[in-house]
Amino acid sequence: MTERSEHDEIFAALERIAHQAPAPDRVVQGLTGRIRVHRQRRALLTIGGATVGAAAAGVPAFFVLRPGTDAGPGPGPAVPSTGPEPSPVSVAPSIGPDPSPAAGNTWAPLLVQPTWLPAGVAEFERLARTGGDPRQLQSWADQEYQNIAQETSGDMDERAKRLAATRFVSIAVTLPRTLDPQRADVPATQGPVSDPRVLGGEANATVNGQPAYRSEPGGPDLAELSWVLNGSLVRVSVSVAAGGSEAAARVAASVVAAQRSGVEVGMSFGWLPERARGLPMELISTVMGAEWAQVIDIFNNDIDGDDPGVRALLSSTKPAVMVDQQPTTVRGRRGVLTDDGYVTVQLADGSWLQIGGRASSEAVRLADKLVIGPPAYRGWSGTR
Amino acid sequence: MTFDEYLRTRVSALLRFAMVVACDAHLAEDVVQDVLVRAHGRWQRIVAMEHPEAYLKRMVVNECLRSRRRTRRTVPLTHDSLDAASPHLPDHAGAYGVRDDLVRRIASLPPKQRAVVALRYYDGRTDAEIAEYLGCREGTVRAHASRALATLRTAMSASTAHGRY
C-alpha cells in the first residue's frame, strides 16, 4: 500500500467516525442549560464533587433574607426607573471593609461591589486575583439555587431547568483583551469603550452614561449587561426570577469601587515549582450552608484558565478523587496520590486538602510545605 | 465573529472533530459543550486570536484526554451504530468489513495515539503543530503515530488483500 492510499484509507475511516457526531442542534440546545450551570461551576468544582447534599448542608436561616428589611438603591448612582420593580423588595448590600486577613492566609481584593441587589439573594461565592489582570467574580443566589448547585447527581439539563427558575446574580470583572496594551497581537488596543469586541456585541444600552451591551446569553432566563469601568470589563448577570434585564440595569448602575473587601483563604504556599513562581494567584471562596471550600489557583496559561499550573483546595468536604490512586504520606498523615498530579489528605481538624497540578512528584512537596493558617473570614457569606 | 455566529456556522465541524478524537458520541457531545461553555466566558479573547478555531480544537483535544483519564470509560463502536450513522456510504462487500475493522481499530487506540491520528490525518496538522496541541515533543508525537500506524496497518493490509486497492 502506498503512503497516499494509507493516508486516504485512514482519512476515510475517520470521516466514517465523524459521521457519527451528535446533531449540532441538540448540542446547541443543551448549551443553553450548560452556560447557566457554568455560573455555579466553580462552586461545583469545590463544594460539589464531594458528598454534600442539601439535607447534609442544612439550610441556614441567614441565607433566607426576610422581605422588607431594606430597600432602595443605596449610596450608588441613581437609577432611572424603566418599568416595574424586578422584585418586590430590593436590598442594599453592605460594602464595609472586611477584617484584615490573618497571618498565614492569602488575600486578594475585590475590585467592585454593588450597592443594590434584588431581594431574596445571599452571597455565596467570591473570586479575586492577587496581581495580574483584573479578575473578579461575586455571586448571590437564593437557597433553592444553592441546593441545586450542591446536587452531585442527576441530569444536567434537568438541573439547568430548575436553576432557571431560581434567583441568581453575579458580577464578573475581567480585562478586555482589546484594552490590554501588552497584548500586541490584538488590534485596536486602547479602542473605544463602545468597541463591540470589548463589550461582546454592539452597544445597545448604557450604564451611568457608558456604552453597554445587553444580552441574553444562552437563552432568555438570564440577562447580562456588560460595560467598561476603569479599563475593566464588568458583566452583571441576573436571572429572570431575580428581575432579569431590569434588575441587571439597577445592579449595574449601583456598582462602586470595593472598600477593602476581598477573598481570604486559610492557607499560603510555602513552596512552589519554578514555573509557578511570581504568577498571579486566583482565590476562590465558596460557602453553601454549613459547607465551605477555598481554592488557590496559579495559572500557567492565562487564556486557558481551566488548566491551572498549581491548585490548592481546602474544603469542609471530601473532594472528588480519581479512581486510580496510591497511598502516600503527606503532612504526616495518610493521603492518596493520583496520576493527575494531585495529593488528597484529610487534615487533623477534619477538613480536606487537595493540592497539586502537573506532576505527582511535586504534589507531596507542595502539600508538606503549604502553610495552613487560621480559619479565613467568611462573614460575607449568606449576607447581602 | 460572535459566539452565536460561531454556533450557527462552525459547531458542526467542531463536533465532527471531537467525534474523531473521542470515538464516542456521548463524550464528544459532553466535551464540545464543556469547551463551548468555557469558551463563551472568554470569547472575546479567543476570537481575537490568530487561529481561534485551532484554539478551540486544542481545547477539545485536551478535554477529551482529560475526560478519558477521569472516567476511563470506553464505548466501543458497534456495527449497528456505524450502519445507522452512514447508511448512504457505498459498500463493497469485503471492503465494508475492512473499513469497519479499521474504524474499530482507531476507536480502540489509546487516547493519545488516537488524538495524534485525528490531528494528523483528519485535521491535517504537522507533527510540530500536534506537539503544541498535546504539550509534548515532536519525537513523542512521532512515537505515538508510529505505534498507532502499526496497529492500523494490520487492518489496512487486510484491505489490500481484499484487492480493494
Short description:
The complex is a heterodimer of chains A (384) and B (165). Chain A is an alpha+beta fold. Chain A has a domain at 263-372: Phosphorylase Kinase, domain 1, CATH 3.30.200.
Mean pLDDT of chain A: 75
The share of residues in helices of chain A is: 10-25%
Structure class of chain A: alpha+beta
Helix residue percentage of chain B: over 70%
The average pLDDT value of chain B, as a whole number, equals 73
H/E series of chain B, N to C?
HHHHHHHHH
Percent range for β-strand residues of chain A:
25-35%
Layout of strands and helices, then pairs:
The complex is a heterodimer of chains A (384) and B (165).
Chain A: H1 3-18, H2 24-38, H3 41-46, H4 54-57, E1 90-91, E2 106-109, E3 112-113, E4 117-118, E5 122-130, E6 136-141, H5 143-149, H6 156-164, E7 168-174, H7 196-199, E8 205-207, E9 210-215, E10 222-229, E11 232-239, H8 244-253, E12 256-257, E13 262-265, E14 267-268, E15 281-288, E16 291-299, E17 308-315, E18 325-330, E19 333-338, E20 342-346, E21 352-356, H9 360-369, E22 371-372
Antiparallel strand pairs in A: 1-4, 2-13, 3-12, 5-6, 5-15, 6-7, 7-11, 8-9, 9-10, 10-11, 14-22, 15-16, 16-17, 17-21, 18-19, 19-20, 20-21
Helix pairs in contact in A: 2-6
Chain B: H1 3-22, H2 25-41, H3 43-47, H4 52-71, H5 79-85, H6 94-108, H7 111-122, H8 127-134, H9 138-161
Helix pairs in contact in B: 1-2, 1-4, 1-7, 2-4, 6-9, 7-9, 8-9
Commentary on this structure:
The complex is a heterodimer of chains A (384) and B (165). Chain A has 384 residues and is α+β, with helices and mostly antiparallel strands. Chain A has a domain at 263-372: Phosphorylase Kinase, domain 1 (2-Layer Sandwich). Chain A has helices at residues 3-18, 24-38, 41-46, 54-57, 143-149, 156-164, 196-199, 244-253, 360-369, and strands spanning 90-91, 106-109, 112-113, 117-118, 122-130, 136-141, 168-174, 205-207, 210-215, 222-229, 232-239, 256-257, 262-265, 267-268, 281-288, 291-299, 308-315, 325-330, 333-338, 342-346, 352-356, 371-372. In chain A, strand 5 (122-130) and strand 6 (136-141) form a beta hairpin. The longest helix of chain A has 16 residues, at 3-18. Chain B is mostly helical and 165 residues long. Chain B has one domain: Butyryl-CoA Dehydrogenase, subunit A, domain 3 (Up-down Bundle), CATH 1.20.140. Chain B contains nine helices and no strands. Chains A and B meet through helix 1 and helix 2 of A and helix 1, helix 2, helix 3, helix 4 and helix 5 of B. Chain B: It holds the Pfam family Sigma70_r2. Chain B: Residues 8-74 form the RNA polymerase sigma-70 region domain.
